[in-house]
Amino acid sequence: MDRLQAMRVFVTVVDLGSQSAAADHLELSRPVVSRYLAELEDWVGARLMHRTTRKLSLTAAGTEILPRCRQMLELSGDMQAAVSTPDDVPRGMLRISASPSFGQAQLAGALVEHVKRYPGVKVDLQLLDRTVNLVDERIDLAIRMSNDLDPNLIARRLTVCRSVICASPAYLRDHPAPQRVEDLSGHNCLTHSYVGKSLWHFEQDGEQVSVPVQGNICTNEASTLLRVTMAGAGVAMLPSYQAGTHIRSGELIRLLPHAEPRQMAMYAVYASRKHMPSALRSLVDFLVLKFPEDPEWDMGL
Hints:
- The protein contains nine helices and 15 strands.
- By secondary structure, it is α/β, with parallel strands linked by helices.
- The protein has three domains: 3-83, Winged helix-like DNA-binding domain superfamily/Winged helix DNA-binding domain (Arc Repressor Mutant, subunit A), CATH 1.10.10.10; 92-159 and 265-298, 3-Layer(aba) Sandwich (D-Maltodextrin-Binding Protein, domain 2); 163-262, 3-Layer(aba) Sandwich (D-Maltodextrin-Binding Protein, domain 2), CATH 3.40.190.290.
- The strands form four sheets. The chain has a five-stranded mixed beta sheet, covered by helices on one side. A five-stranded mixed beta sheet has the order 11-8-12-7-13. Strands 10-9-14 form a three-stranded antiparallel beta sheet, with no helix packed on it.
- Helix 1 crosses helix 2, helix 1 (3-16) packs across helix 4 (60-83) and helix 2 crosses helix 3.
- It is elongated and about 75 Å long.
- The two termini are 45 Å apart.
- The mean pLDDT is 88.
């Protein structure tokens, strides 16, 4: 738990009179405010507020704790002012989460470029094929692909995650290339456990088309799906950020270029806009420029 932030949330709730008002002021979601308050109460071992539908009131423990929290926040501000530099050069540790496929294919190189520019920044990169809880897992920034992003999250849009249908030259020597998306039902389609396991969605000739697919290999990790596709096992739907290099090199052949698989938006997600460390703010700004709407990995596809 970020105890200092929890104290800041507690003081703001008291000053503004409600969790909703505090959430708006701190630019946090309401669930995050509630979680900070609960964690602060767990830490001090006492209930700090009486919560009703009409108003909030301090308990005896809350009354005792409030001035101490104000003192801690004031001391923290003094410490930050004492060590701040005029140019506010980004520095400090950032914990970042992303999927293994995007982390390996694109994000790792971008982070190297960024930390070379700002050597005072350190990165703890967590590559996980699951959605992380930013507060509970102390993640400063998560890269997410979604068309249905949680409205409680703070996010900046980066780029679009496009997918391509592809197979290896070895597979296509033994199997005729599909001409329409409906032809995929006659191919060994290699699938992802969480995205398109049995149904692939396309836009073809201006219409939305869904095609049932099946095959003998399914995996929960996109990098493994790429490897089995390159080994000639079948046809796969892969993110262009991952497959683009292999298509340009001839290791994979793009199929059905007239049919566009369903796209997903890519976001940089974080817990709060308020009191963002300069290291986090500069990294998000860098990623917005690094991963634009038409990213480099889609060139030539």
